[in-house]
Amino acid sequence: MSETTVRRAGNRVFIAAVVLACVWVLLPIYLLLINALSAPAEVTGFPKRFWPSFDLASIRFFLGFKGVTSALWNSVQVAVLTMVMAIGAGAPAGYALARFDFPGKQAFRFMVVMTRAFPLPLLALPLAVLFIRVGLDDTVIGLAFVHTTLALPFAVLITYSLFSGIPYELEEAALTLGCNRVQAFLKVVLPLAAPGIAASAVFAFVVSWNEVFASAVLTIEHRTLTAFLLQSLDVSPLPLKFAGGAALVLPALGFIFAVRKYLFAMWGIANR
Amino acid sequence: MAEIEIKGVGKTFGAFTALHSIDLTIKDQEFVVLLGASGCGKTTLLRIIAGLDSPSKGEVWIGGRRVDTLPPRERGISMVFQNYAVFPHLTVFENIAFGLRMQKLPQAEVTRRVTRTAELMHIEALLKRYSGQLSGGQRQRVAVARALAMEPDVILMDEPLSNLDALLRLEMRAELKGVLAASKTTTIYVTHDQVEAMSLADRIAVMHGGDIIQAERPVEVYRNPAARFVGSFIGNPPMNFLPATAAGEGRWQVAGLTFEGPRVAAPQIEFAIRPEDLHPADHGFEAEVRVVEPLGPHTLITASVAGVVMRAVLDSTLALATGDHITLSPVADRIRWFDLATQKAIA
Amino acid sequence: MPRLLPYLLLLPATAFLCLFFLYPFTLVAIDSLNHDGVWGFENFDRMASHWKFGPTFRNTILLAAVVVPLQLTLALMMASMVTRLKHARGAVLYIFAIPLGISDLAAGLVWLAIFEQSGFLNSALTGLGVIDKPMLFLGYQSKGVIFTAIVLTELWRATAIMMVILVAGMGLIPKEYGEAAEVFGASRWQRFRRVTLPLLKPSLQTALILRVIMAFEVFAVVLALGGTNLPVLMSETYHWQFTMQERGVAAAYAMVILGISVGFTVLILRLLHVPKEARP
Fold this sequence. Notes:
The structure holds three protein chains of three kinds.
Chain A: H1 3-36, H2 40-44, H3 57-64, H4 68-99, H5 105-114, H6 124-134, H7 140-164, H8 168-176, H9 181-210, H10 213-218, H11 225-231, H12 238-259, H13 263-267
Chain B: E1 4-13, E2 16-26, E3 31-35, H1 42-50, E4 57-62, E5 65-66, E6 77-80, H2 92-102, H3 107-120, H4 136-149, E7 154-158, H5 166-183, E8 186-191, H6 194-200, E9 203-208, E10 211-216, H7 218-223, H8 228-233, E11 240-246, E12 251-254, E13 257-260, E14 269-273, E15 278-294, E16 298-305, E17 308-315, E18 325-330, E19 336-339, E20 345-346
Parallel strand pairs in B: 3-8, 3-9, 6-7, 7-8
Antiparallel strand pairs in B: 1-2, 1-4, 4-5, 9-10, 11-12, 11-14, 12-13, 14-19, 15-16, 15-18, 16-17, 19-20
Helix pairs in contact in B: 2-3, 2-4, 3-4
Chain C: H1 5-32, E1 34-35, E2 38-39, H2 42-49, H3 53-84, H4 89-97, H5 104-115, H6 120-127, H7 143-172, H8 175-183, H9 188-199, H10 201-216, H11 220-226, H12 233-242, H13 247-271
Antiparallel strand pairs in C: 1-2
């Protein structure tokens, strides 16, 4: 065998491996979607077909089920609040870390990074009691506070890397061209950072949308979708589970697509 | 009228002193170059004049107004940055118009000024492009046009040519000189490149260790360095220095020769001569050639004189080889003397 | 620059972290040491003396011990693939990253569709004639299968995070190092083993810490696939908090999870320590 044949064979093995890995990720999602897009009788029936019948009865059953629409609505509310609070508190901090040197900077960075070494959903336990005392129990905003704590470190780190990537010289140029600090930020930094900030906002949304433990602990009447599904795991029929699963998974496909350029800023930052 | 006065300006960063106490007056329409190695404080001084850093002490006056507490936008300055700072989210047109729009000038005036400065910098064909579609040289031109369009009293330039390649730098240098002279704007220009400084400046302020050592016309700085540092920093190759020992009233012994020198009581002084002021002669320093570097118009030789390394720029027709012995005579009126204790020139 | 500006900008985030991170963790610690107003280790005693604590602890550690190494290998393979790809790199990276956006509960439901009695695994196996009638995979007698299903789900769900961190880390390693090694005669595997892997240590550190902590937090996947048949620390915490209404014991469980999380973080930091002088 010549050198090129060996290389070509190696390339084929490589491509096959890549395809296999893609199938490994995508196939289970496809199977769940088959269930979501089949009639309830097919979902509980046996054997399964490997393509959907595009019967929307399961979806309709799911949406008509008592508590589902309000759970969906609660999930959206909590996620939007989380998004707003995480960016509102995180972006200024990211900007300060990127632009200024000041005493205490290392301590703050340490606290942010340290949150990663802690199982954050456990926060829900003491907060459940605390929230009852201050009247935040079983509220959308109370849960959003906890989810913001989960999303905040990411928001800080992503915006930190974003703002670091925008040369300070640009802001200084704006200052010498007649801007004050706020104008320089609004006219120069914000337009350049906007797509990245949007991505980290989406990421904060995802963190909240997906969170199970704290949601289950902190909500009773006002359940989010994850909390609702978890609560009814033992009792709910299969079509409900799978349609609910699909309702959780489908947005994820869009989320990750929206933030795909910023994936590295989220996690890669920790390499330095 | 925009005279700039810097009075006793100092700057410390924590325990580090970037500027000691700078005094400098820059006349209206003058082109002053702040020249020095990196870390000498030249950029800090420029940023203090711009208002991007604030001085720890001292005052800055522009056009008869004290400005050191004012933000940059109220100082009547504009600036060209080392990495150009051309806004990536705006077209070339909008970049040049940026400052004008901040002043809320009418659209007609904005267009007029942008067009005029763009023509001046030969970038009128690029007005619709974005920074990402420009070469380094083109970005440089946009940055200069943006500063000029403001019609400022003072233009500040922070190593504007340092990121261009050698040929482009030469071209831009000449162009900048023409454009800035025509604009009649007071200019402060920071560079570490002595050739750039010599070619552009009305006056060079040589900086070292947070002080201005000498601020005079380029020829003066070159011919009569006020301090040993200036002689060793400016000129390529730099000045030669040889130790001198006293040999009676105003006479000094240097590498076996006796010279008429300054009548001072300083125990240790140095003899200094520029490499191009050494010529082969029958009588002079006995030198042993170590390295011969033909440079085209001249030949640069490195030689050892009484155990000290000296350089001489000689006629390229001279046939010299490593190990040759040669006698080098200094041009009498080009000899300079420095006090080793104070490092200053002796008049 | 106004001296207070950076602090002003940090204020909201700091206040948030103090109020909703540092303070509640202090409260958990206090709760765990306080039983009906009496200070001491009563809660920990009650937790440890319960018959379920042993299996719970074992299950959690065993899951982490099986999942994490497999996942690290898989993530390294996938990251190498992405790094080596010349075409369609963006598309493949996107596909590989999809599970990053999927919650643990959803992942559990995805794999439930495969493993449940009328699910796709049974359908495929009977279709191929391997078995005649569908088997009960996730019943309480078949803890081994439940365990395997959870491992597969975790592998599917959480490899993406490690993969993205490792791709980012590989991107930071200058190509010249690998090329230099190639010039000196290193094979592809040797280059990976001797150049890429050591230089990847900081990223490996981050990836492992994140992943190991996630492993101790495993919760919804277990509930979705195994119900209460395979208790883990997090599900027991939930159980004590709600079903048993014993907050003190739940807090004690939380402290155990916290303890092993911090312990393993320190361990990983030690094991994969790169001295300052050896950093690029």
